[in-house]
Amino acid sequence: MPVYINSIGSVSAQKTFDNSLFLEEIVRYNDTVLEIIAPNYKDYIPPAAARRMAKGIKMSTVSAKTAMIEAGMEEDEIDAIIVGTGLGCIGDSEKFVSDILDNDEQFLTPTRFIQSSHNTVAGQIALGMGCKGHNFTYVHSAISFESAVMDAKMQLENEEAKNILVGGVDELVDHHVNTHRLIGHIKQEPVETMSVLTSGTKGAVFSEGAHFFTLSNEKRSSCYSELLAVETFNTLAEDQVAAKTKSFLSENGMGPDAIDVIILGYNGDVEFDGYYDTLATALFKDTAQVYYKHLSGEFDTASGFGFWLGNKLLKQQRIPDAVRLNSVPANSAQNALIYNQYRGENHSLTLLRKC
After folding, report:
1. 332 to each of 22, 215, 223, 288, 354, how far by Cα in Å?
2. Residue limits of the Beta-ketoacyl synthase-like N-terminal domain (predicted)?
3. pLDDT at residue 293 above 90?
């Protein structure tokens, strides 16, 4: 059975929560850590409920509702909810542990404990819409989102479900940022958004975000693309990337020349961007090239932003100047390939075809 991406929803460091826009207005930063541009949560969540929600839950609720509305789906049409996250609601975990220490293990409120688990987001969305179907959360570091997509794809292909809500979410918290800054995974000096690739320094600009999509084996009028294939690899050497990519395309009846646009997860880390160079300078040097982490920042499910971008590109048939890596046009783009990795591990390849 074919698998269609019928709608999208995004909350990120850019103004992506409005699906009528497509990076017309770029928000520029000069920093090492980027926070999301929050929508007006009152438009989506009752204020009393929003006050008790962690940031990850709130931005996921907005993204999920945006995707549902665009697809024209009713809550009872969703058969499963699958979420990928690297850290889950780590903010509430951190606060709960701090409360234990500060209050000498007494007079603790249960809310932060309840909301501190990784599967809180999927559970809260399901409770909100009354979905009693398959509810699963993947915590697979930088391939958490792809793991969720693969699960949904297999269920739809085997006709175990008709409509699945799939998402990826991660939030920033101080302890996480401080730890990664200490070990050199975050850049030491602020970098201007559009200069990330020329920074010449180690580490990335960290961020957060939530991206949700409705996947179905039935194409709707809102359809963005058909999901052809997803594959992940735990570790690869730089000189293996091109061969694995060619093999991945061959398994799907394509060669490199069939790809109209390639979306690469460059994050400006001088130690690991070479993985992307192996494709950009050789296998796909004559293909339209796009990057995105200078806009979204780096986090475990940042590839969800790349997935959002790929779907937008195929539907709108244009590449915003802010994400262009080269000047090769992508007229009448049919096939898009997304490649992501983080610090040389957890590589993923995702293949999309225009609806």
Report:
1. 18, 23, 16, 12, 9
2. 45-210
3. yes
